[in-house]
Amino acid sequence: MMSFPNSLLDGYRNFMSGRYADARDRYRQLAENGQNPTTLVIACCDSRAAPELIFDAGPGELFVIRNVANMVPPYEPDGHFHSTSAALEFAVQALKVKNIVVMGHGRCGGIRAALDPDAEPLSSGDFIGRWMSLVRPAAEQIGSNDVMTPAERQTALERVSIRNSINNLRSFPDIKALEEEGKLELHGAWFDISTGELWVMDSETLDFIRPEI
Amino acid sequence: MMSFPNSLLDGYRNFMSGRYADARDRYRQLAENGQNPTTLVIACCDSRAAPELIFDAGPGELFVIRNVANMVPPYEPDGHFHSTSAALEFAVQALKVKNIVVMGHGRCGGIRAALDPDAEPLSSGDFIGRWMSLVRPAAEQIGSNDVMTPAERQTALERVSIRNSINNLRSFPDIKALEEEGKLELHGAWFDISTGELWVMDSETLDFIRPEI
Amino acid sequence: MMSFPNSLLDGYRNFMSGRYADARDRYRQLAENGQNPTTLVIACCDSRAAPELIFDAGPGELFVIRNVANMVPPYEPDGHFHSTSAALEFAVQALKVKNIVVMGHGRCGGIRAALDPDAEPLSSGDFIGRWMSLVRPAAEQIGSNDVMTPAERQTALERVSIRNSINNLRSFPDIKALEEEGKLELHGAWFDISTGELWVMDSETLDFIRPEI
Amino acid sequence: MMSFPNSLLDGYRNFMSGRYADARDRYRQLAENGQNPTTLVIACCDSRAAPELIFDAGPGELFVIRNVANMVPPYEPDGHFHSTSAALEFAVQALKVKNIVVMGHGRCGGIRAALDPDAEPLSSGDFIGRWMSLVRPAAEQIGSNDVMTPAERQTALERVSIRNSINNLRSFPDIKALEEEGKLELHGAWFDISTGELWVMDSETLDFIRPEI
């Protein structure tokens, strides 16, 4: 008995008759030669914010980490399992990517939870509560303000969290060194699910601005 | 000064004039009502194996975790940051997904490293070494066999690792309970980058077979 | 001797040969019958944010108050001179406008000053310091946060100040009553000088959003 | 729900496709570098007398205060909110404008009210009554004369009020000092809504005359 979701099999049929058929040689070459992406994107698991769709990226272009709220924890070489740090290490050391993009988005459920003082653990493990504690200091500062609307506070924290993750990227000695040598660039981006607007972080002011399109 | 990669901005322009323009109402509705995906896919960061491409999925359809070698660690409620466990908790408890698909692929760099007895740490943190130790027992069994070719050993471990992750999913009490209640299904899939073939795990035999297309 | 600025006289010549020549009858009729605008706009003195330009408004369309940071003080019937309150009274009671729009803008010098803890009085009278104290409580909340960038804090306060002014409008008994009777609507708007974007306040969430254009 | 007046959104569309599209670079530069207007215009809120239209002024050219009857109160550093004095202070001290133009116009409702002995307060706050008392002494002199027609009395007071405001400008110590140093010029102007005629005050005779066009 095999019960694989039909919706996924239907999509797979479209892939085979469409994109794969069009890019058959590209897939074969990528299989032979291995991947060589120049960009790592750290994105959210959110079903509305897939980087391959937003950046119209084909096979081999983007190495992608996806976790809740597209966060990077600080450097902690403590022998535990570190999914995100392991993928970072692989992208930077093995693939030698030239760009890392921390990509956030509007209406992020993780960020909303971080701003909710009454948020209950989702399970006895409270993995989300612990994970989102990465932005707790910023969440407390922004959440304590009662003049901005909830939506304004959420957008603010979504962007602050991107800067926070970029700072955490620099806590990895190798990333910091490569950035200083000009071999690696760290970028921030924020996607508005509703309007489709992409905002990118200005590397000097750290503000999020809309690029010329 | 703003130095966002032009290749990404070019792709974004295509997205806005293409997919977004076509699905504007869908994006707005998803922003208004929030996401409601029924499927979580745990996939690899590999740039050649994006689930949205392989399953031709649109916005709102797939909640996606991506880490190296699409692995799930065992349940460890120890107060550390657990990127993958946090995302699992969010997908199962908050989004109440009905399906979890652990999706592996051929030519996986993480699995290759796990099979390489001479693999050196990629950095002093050795995050990848620690992360891939999740499949070390299986890697040692398969690696010690010298009758299978390297490619055969790698494909074998790629598939064993998917079953290993599905077993680890069941170490999460809530996931185990929901599966037993018939409210959540756990699936395995393996994608051949070269041929584009999708193989799915038979839920009874645990073999990987090619679905009828 | 008459030393009227030549730049203004040059502009006036353009007006006479252009807009006035085109709208001569409209001007005569407006002189005969008096003005009958249905909208009051409370805008900033800023030279970059003239409402007649942004709303492409002709003669007779907008009754306009302009002060620093487009603010409305609370109702204070204390017998002092109240420029803004007097104009409000005239617009609501004599002209019976149907809409009041509090229109802010980006890069507002007054708001920037309100956020600057080291701001010195501009003169011994310190009129600006006193005037901007209308938003001091909000400025202190937003200014105390050190995770948003200066530009983010300024945009946030520009929008909070618009809501603050709308609340102050409701401290005028007649405005409150007319609004409750459905005879007067209060609106907020924010103009981005750089991009030309107009954001309007959602009357329910109080968020600023971009209208369909 | 968002109920922003459609007439304004229509005008905004014209602005974006017209003036903004034509002056995009100018707006961006003004946003980057800040405003640097050399002229402050103190004009009436009247919908028929927008200085940007009459002087065909583009973005960044005029810093504009608009209150009822374009008046300047005397210097009163009493700690109350002074909308007009605050804007004056900002224009003179922060922007260092070179010209201040007090610009009146025909058919001014505020001046008419000041000349009406039977004028009732418009509301219990009587803000207009208090505000227009700035010209009461002149209004009583001119109103007591029964040989001029009502229209003649009104035009006369409109012009007297402009001179009165210019005298009040000189009650601000810094403005008086800058004018004496030749760093700031004070001007009067009067606009005839019906004919479009602009009359400017001769700085020696204080008469209003029509400039050579």
UniProtKB/TrEMBL annotation, chains A, B, C, D:
Catalytic activity: hydrogencarbonate + H(+) = CO2 + H2O
Top-level taxon of the source organism: Bacteria
Keywords linked to the UniProt accession: Lyase, Metal-binding, Zinc
PROSITE patterns: PROK_CO2_ANHYDRASE_2 (PS00705)
Top EC class of this enzyme: lyase
SUPFAM superfamilies the record matches: beta-carbonic anhydrase, cab
The protein's name: Carbonic anhydrase
Organism this protein belongs to: Rhizobium viscosum
